[in-house]
Amino acid sequence: MSRNLRLPIWVARPEVKGEMGSLFPSRAGLRHDIPNAENLLQFYEKMVHSMRSDRDRKWFKHVFMTFVLLNGDDFIHEFGPDGEMTTIGWTAFSRRLTSKDARMYGKWKIRWRHLFDIRFVEHLMDNYDALDYGLLASMMDEDVLGYKLQWTKKLFLPVPLMDGFSFYVVEVEEKTLVVLDPAETSIHDDEMSIKHEDNATLVLKTLRTVLRNHFSD
Asked: What is the DSSP letter of 196?
């Protein structure tokens, strides 16, 4: 049954739509007439009547890139005085730092820091009891990163919290956590601890589980 349920896999070329122009999508191996309506109905019928082992399989996973677009107003409202940064703004900021690190280190496998994708951290916080290890592993893979995550000195996790963002910095060798919170927070009455302790405990516990699972050796 598993063999009969497989659909043809079209291998997309690395070009993007803007470079292919009028040749998109056929040049990437995509055709609007495949699969046709009959193919879809046949697939549906086979899936409905398939064995439980087939239906429990993960049939589709798309680790997609986040499209980031900021105009002038976005820069003013997100990066200016009293600005409120959105997830898109934070992603742009993080990618800028990542690109600078890549230019500085080149192909060197040892890095001073690793900046986690914000989607990685959001998944840790929102799905701690049902983690998608495949998705998380795809964001830690050496071939994707270009360096070894386990050789980095500090792990930077961008954390969305209370309509703002903070950095949780894991000092790997010292086994400590530093919280970088740009929001105005009182130094009295343990306000920082109250604000971050529960969330930091959750993030660290889940991160430790993911890293142990990924680097089992």
From this structure: H
Q: For the whole model, what pTM was predicted?
A: 0.64
160 φ, ψ to 5°?
A: -75, 125
State phi, psi for 58 to the nearest 5 degrees.
-85, 105
d(C-alpha 82, C-alpha 78), whole Å: 8
DSSP state of 28: G
Neighbours of 203 (CB within 10 A): 21
Q: CA dihedral defined by 145, 149, 154, 160, rounded to 10 degrees? A: 60
Interacting residues of 150 by C-beta distance below 8 A, sequence separation 6+: 215
The amino acid sitting at 63 is V
How far apart (Å, rounded) are the C-alpha atoms in residues 212 and 93? 29
Tokens representing 180 are: 């970088």
Q: What is the DSSP string of 150-163?
A: GG-SEEEEEEEETT
C-beta separation of 139 from 117 below 8 A: yes
Tell me what pLDDT residue 9 has: 37
Q: Which residues, listed in sequence order, are joined to residue 211 by a DSSP beta bridge? A: none
The label of the residue with tokens 């890095």 reads 111
Structural domain spans, the chain: 2-55, 107-214
**Residues 81-139 pLDDT 10s:** 777 888 888 888 888 888 888 888 887 878 888 999 888 888 888 888 888 888 888 88
Closest of 149, 166, 173, 174 to residue 200, by C-alpha: 166
CATH of domain 107-214: 3.40.395.10
